[in-house]
Amino acid sequence: MKKITYSVLDLSMITKDGNAATAIERTVDLAQHAEKLGYERVWLAEHHNMEFIASSATSVLIGHVAAKTSKIRVGSGGIMLPNHAPLAIAEQFGTLETMYPNRIDLGLGRAPGTDQQTAAALRRGDLNTAYQFPNDVVALQKFFSEGNKTAAVRAFPAEGLDIPIWILGSSTDSAYLAAEMGLPYAFASHFAPKQFKIATQIYRNNFRPSPYLDKPYVLACVNGIAADTIEEAELLSMSLYKMFSGILTNARQPLSPPIPNLLKTWPQDLLDAVLPMTACSFIGDKDSLIEQFSDFADEHQVDEFMITGNIYDNEKRLKSYGILAEVFETINRS
């Protein structure tokens, strides 16, 4: 099996006993911990009008995390490009790359990262910007290129900087675009696993080599919860399942302590909604996770796993990421 890269996705979730400030502190703690453990990158995700997520100003938070770390790559998973002018994103990420050279990633998505009314507020009433996503990615690449020197509109300090651009997706549309543009592809299987297999097949089958990438590169974002025992990991995962139930029932809450046997109290229709949505969740002890990740990577030819671990207790969350690092190191040595 080829060596697997492993990384972190964090949304700066606000916990039941916390606030936005403590959520950001947890994000910094995790990034520093991941850096020591050998994780490749930590990405932050853009969301809006969500009371219990503190990553709405994603570029600002990326800069904060990069300043608190020294070598781990820091980036967006992602910037929802239809919410922004490409020029503004070029300027923001050019500034980040200037301050933290060779450490910044720019993952781009076309979803709003919010509800339609908030998307309209972000986009000043123009909800057609999502259809411009492919052209906006091209415009962003142009602002970063040396070839833009003769243009009337230029991005400083972005021009000439080599900032890796990724296409993010949760459906097959993004797979075609990433393949056509020859860019690395990150799939949100942590909440949209149903189309992961077909989307990555489309991406690989249609990939065109580019100046940015000579062969397909697939990153699978998954839920990962590890503990000393399978039973403890399953208990910790109840916070994750409660979070997803809040999303689906429109009864969002802060990340809450795990409730033993929570799933046994749910009606069947809620189980039928949540369990398929969380199918790409890797939960267990070290030995069971080695088997789970090895089998998945082998079946889907995953180049990189990005782990999001929504665990309420911060120390247990950090420990989980430590066990997961041991899992990937073991797999890579085999």
Automatic annotation (TrEMBL):
GO terms for cellular component: cytosol. To bacterial alkanal monooxygenase alpha and beta chains. InterPro entries: Bact_Lucif_Oxidored (IPR050766), CmoO-like (IPR019949), Luciferase-like_dom (IPR011251), Luciferase-like_sf (IPR036661). Signal peptide: none annotated. Residues 9-297 form the Luciferase-like domain. This is Luciferase-like monooxygenase. It holds the Pfam family Bac_luciferase. One of its GO terms (molecular function) is oxidoreductase activity, acting on paired donors, with incorporation or reduction of molecular oxygen.
